Amino acid sequence: MSETVPTSWLVYCRPGFESDALAEMQHHAKQQEVSCEPAQGEGWASLTRLDGEPINDLHRKAAFKQLIFARQSLAALPALTLSREDRLTAILDQVKLSRWSFEEIWHETPDTNDGKALAGLIKALTKPLQSMLKKRGALRGKAGARRLHIFWTDGDQVQLGMSFPDNRSELINGIRRLRFPSRAPSRSTLKLEEAWHEFIPREEWDKRLSAHMQAADLGAAPGGWTWQLVQRGMYVYAIDNGPMDKQLMATGQVDHLKEDGFAWEPPQRMDWLVCDIVDKPVRVLAMVERWLTRKWCREAIFNLKLPMKKRWDEVDRCISTLEEALAASNVRAKITCRHLYHDREEVTVHVRLAH
């Protein structure tokens, strides 16, 4: 029997954003001059090479950390239809033909109610499959930290994918679940907390998110993002015409200024600018450009609200515009953008100016 190779690039995404994830993938495939057949389902998208060659090179060059709409990125084998009487044999046979070896097995599903309903079936199959793959030598102790992902789209439909260290999410289903802090003024607080986890290595939090720093929160009311900054010990200029949470104001760490966030200028350089204003991306971008080109802050996290269609095109245009504006002003910076789990119709952008 001939060897089976991974010809597909499979990503998970938020349901409803499949076409955006796919458009982003096609952008990378075009850059690498790789012809692919697109496919998508609820909560996932894929590209399959038309020439039957392995997808590994494209998968590696389209680095996960660069991707915006993907929650996970895998080099995948052809999808399998399983027998309901014997679901394991087809999986075992494909692993054997792939000659894959790996240190872990993750069973995952789309982020849908139908996906969650598969939990019982997956639990029943997990230990038997693990045992069989160990006996065959595919699941072993030292395999370059490679991970086998078994992506279940139905009780008899799976696709096997491989992930590699430094080019994947280390979270099941690519989802970071955070507990809502009961004292926070709004659920939007989770967006900033998740952004910190996503963009700032945990070992750098004490340095880059430290007490005695100063931050500006534009469009702050009622204070969901300001609350996170205060928890880190920062002093915050909360800019919003709306009312701020009373408990938050009682901390003495917040200066609430009832001014227009788009027009306000800081009294001195801030350590952080954060902004979750609901407005057109072009307007938010112009304001952030002003802050960054004038170096009014060292780091910034802000959200860009997305249109209903062609969201990838809009995000790509926004990031390119920001990069060009900073370059024109001789401002060196690292820009990263992600569609976070706690985001809805928006993406979160992080910018860190070079020292």
UniProtKB/TrEMBL annotation:
Binding site for S-adenosyl-L-methionine: 188, 221-224, 240, 260, 276
Catalytic activity annotation: cytidine(2498) in 23S rRNA + S-adenosyl-L-methionine = 2'-O-methylcytidine(2498) in 23S rRNA + S-adenosyl-L-homocysteine + H(+)
Any GO BP annotation: methylation
RlmM ferredoxin-like domain boundaries: 8-74
Occurrences of domain Ribosomal RNA methyltransferase FtsJ (ranges): 186-278
Keywords: Cytoplasm, Methyltransferase, rRNA processing, S-adenosyl-L-methionine, Transferase
EC numbers on record: 2.1.1.186
Subcellular location: Cytoplasm
Pfam family, one: FtsJ
Gene Ontology terms, MF aspect: S-adenosylmethionine-dependent methyltransferase activity
Active site positions: 305 (proton acceptor)
Enzyme class: transferase
Entry superkingdom: Bacteria
Primary location: cytoplasm
An annotated GO cellular component: cytoplasm
Residues of the signal peptide: none
InterPro entries named in the record: RlmM_FDX, RlmM_THUMP-like, RNA_MeTrfase_FtsJ_dom, rRNA_MeTrfase_M, SAM-dependent_MTases_sf
Function: Catalyzes the 2'-O-methylation at nucleotide C2498 in 23S rRNA.
Family to which this protein belongs: Belongs to the class I-like SAM-binding methyltransferase superfamily. RNA methyltransferase RlmE family. RlmM subfamily.
Entry-linked HAMAP family: 23SrRNA_methyltr_M
Name of the molecule in the record: Ribosomal RNA large subunit methyltransferase M
Taxonomic path: Bacteria, Pseudomonadati, Pseudomonadota, Gammaproteobacteria, Oceanospirillales
